[in-house]
Amino acid sequence: MRQFELILASSSQTRKDLMDRLHLNYRCISPDINESADGELHADDLAKRLAFEKARVIAEQNPNAIVIGSDQVAWREHAPYDFIGKPLTVENATLQLQANAGKTVFFSTALSVQHLQSNFETTLVEHYQVKFRQLTIAEIERYIEIDQPLHCAGSFKCESLGISLFEKMLGDDQTTLMGLPMIQLCKILREFGIATP
């Protein structure tokens, strides 16, 4: 059976942790791309373009490897054009969580898998949503201090204390919310004959 090199086009620790679940040999290379919106009017379109570009940059440097790129864009109900980014500061995280309180936040998570040697490329978008409960400012401040979600779209880590902020979660694959849709990724890897498990 042919052995493929696997590359995760990401520097995200959460995505690395998800890949580690598969017990496969892979390496990470961080793609250097501009992640700003470029006229996209829907979160799906922005997530797809960024996932594709992340994978393509690394795939062009490693055409024999299977390259996995992913990107996630968050948005509030009825506003898929109003993208929620990474807060980067405590002040921005506080504002995001205040705005999220009591609302449903949607996540468009794109996956792009590319193997240029065989002209293989597929890019798809999976969806997940969370309903936030009402939050007091004291709860928000305490949460941010403990979890430090400053590099997470929507200002929470669902795999950590962020679960305490929700009323409910809805979607087919919780890893979509974490930034890498693993059910779809495993399906694609099996098409290459890669065992999962």
From TrEMBL:
Lineage, broadest ranks: Bacteria, Pseudomonadati, Pseudomonadota, Gammaproteobacteria, Moraxellales
CDD domains listed in its UniProt record: Maf_Ham1 (cd00985)
Catalytic residue list: 71 (proton acceptor)
Cellular compartments per GO CC: cytoplasm
Family annotation (Pfam families): Maf
E.C. code: 3.6.1.9
Family: Belongs to the Maf family.
Protein's recorded name: Nucleoside triphosphate pyrophosphatase
One GO MF term attached to the UniProt entry: nucleoside triphosphate diphosphatase activity
Subcellular location: Cytoplasm
Role description: Nucleoside triphosphate pyrophosphatase. May have a dual role in cell division arrest and in preventing the incorporation of modified nucleotides into cellular nucleic acids.
Enzyme class of the recorded protein, top EC level: hydrolase
Main localization, broad class: cytoplasm
GO biological process: nucleotide metabolic process
Cofactor: a divalent metal cation
Enzymatic reactions: a 2'-deoxyribonucleoside 5'-triphosphate + H2O = a 2'-deoxyribonucleoside 5'-phosphate + diphosphate + H(+); a ribonucleoside 5'-triphosphate + H2O = a ribonucleoside 5'-phosphate + diphosphate + H(+)
Keywords for this protein: Cytoplasm, Hydrolase, Nucleotide metabolism
Alphabetized Gene3D superfamilies for the sequence: 3.90.950.10
Organism, as annotated: Acinetobacter beijerinckii ANC 3835
